[in-house]
Amino acid sequence: MRVTVIDYKAGNLTSVLKALRHLGAEPVVTDGDPAPIESAERIVLPGVGHFVATRRLDETNLTTAIRAAIARGVPFLGICVGMQWLYAGSTEAPDQHGLAVFSEPCSRFPEGQEKVPHVGWNSLAARPNARLLAGVRDGEYVYFTHSYRAPVTEFTAATTNYIEPFAAAVERDNVFGVQFHPEKSGATGLKILSNFLEIAAC
Amino acid sequence: MLTKRIIACLDVDAGRVVKGVQFVDIIDAGDPAELAARHAREGADEIVMLDITATHERRQTLLDTVRRAASELFVPFCVGGGIRSAHDAEEVFDAGADKVSVNSAALADPSLIDAIGRSFGAQAVVVAIDARRDPNAADPARDAQVFVQGGRKPTGRRVVEWAREAEARGAGEILLTSMDADGTRAGFDCNLTAAVSAAVGIPVIASGGAGTVAHFTEVFARGKADAALAASIFHFGVSSARSLKQELAQAGVPVRLPC
Lengths: 202, 259
What we know:
The structure holds 2 protein chains of 2 kinds.
Chain A: E1 2-6, H1 14-22, E2 26-30, H2 35-38, E3 43-45, H3 55-59, H4 62-71, E4 76-79, H5 81-84, E5 89-90, E6 105-108, E7 118-123, E8 125-126, E9 141-146, E10 148-149, E11 156-162, E12 164-172, E13 175-178, H6 186-198
Parallel strand pairs in A: 1-2, 1-3, 3-4, 4-13, 5-6
Antiparallel strand pairs in A: 6-10, 7-9, 8-11, 11-12, 12-13
Chain B: E1 5-13, E2 16-19, H1 24-27, H2 32-41, E3 46-51, H3 59-70, E4 77-80, H4 86-94, E5 99-102, H5 104-108, H6 111-120, E6 125-132, E7 145-148, E8 153-158, H7 159-168, E9 173-178, H8 190-199, E10 204-207, H9 213-221, E11 227-230, H10 241-250
Parallel strand pairs in B: 1-3, 1-11, 3-4, 4-5, 5-6, 6-9, 9-10, 10-11
Antiparallel strand pairs in B: 1-2, 6-7, 7-8
Helix pairs in contact in B: 2-3
């Protein structure tokens, strides 16, 4: 099964590609050519690092291709900064817009209570019927590393508590996002990636 | 709830694990890839691989080892030893590491931290610090001295001040080894760990001195550590990270279980 993986030069893709291959998928990487997005069966937007890196998606016109693919119902998964990009933006880079599939902005954890960044294994509370999290039991752990997070809204598929509850996963139609790193979250993470690979285009 | 991480460390030399596993009858000196997989299977939350005698000639050996270890590893994987430039870091990332740890090279040129962080994100940069208490200082733990070259050479830097600089330059985590405690199995240096953990906003991984399950409980409670590393989790009368974590859970420490 072919998966288009978008490389926007924010960190390395090796772990995501490895996990996808482990699950039997064939990742195709694009770092600027819109063709693999235009013909995509499904799309993964990984991402570690700073929100400003998503500017490259605009500069290479991949944003337009991604928007069209989402409109066609192509299953889309954003990971970490890739999830945050699905929102209106992030206070990490106020001048850089996100895709605004979700209208809220992402913002930094409040200082002074716990360490920021939030690094390590934390537990998920999944909404019933969340397709991405099918078979994931309440309280299963996944690996996070981030300082910014999305608020809990009607589209939140799973919450995690750190200082306060935030959106650990989001889904709306065939658009999915995870704040954690499924490629680094052991069996639970692989299960979630495998769920994504099984979601049909709509 | 965010859990306390138990990190398994593999010290490798020329592609072999040279210490860290005492069950020699079972695993010999050990193949790093096999041991990394085994630790992950047995419940370790993260794997750290340190090339303890990193030399230029052996660079390819290390990269091959990282590649083999990473191929079936789906927990965070940090690699250190001999990373002197952003290019060195890139090679290690390409081989499959999620984080790199830098030590001596960062002390020689602190801008290395900025450079790796800029390209790969702060979460990918772990600054390893080897510190020894300064008995002559007002606060021997807080004013502990930073050493390089496997603890042979003092740098004149104080641990808290260096940890803060590392954070300011974009380090994502601090891996703090107490040279006083290392190898003693008499417990982590909780005062040293607490001093550094209180001084920075990034996670601190405690290393050196683990001998019993109680030592882990202490370093999380009193030492304010976010994670603890053991060169061998087989030293403590527990057979795996999983059984260590089961005992920690009984003592009230939040850990990832089942795992």
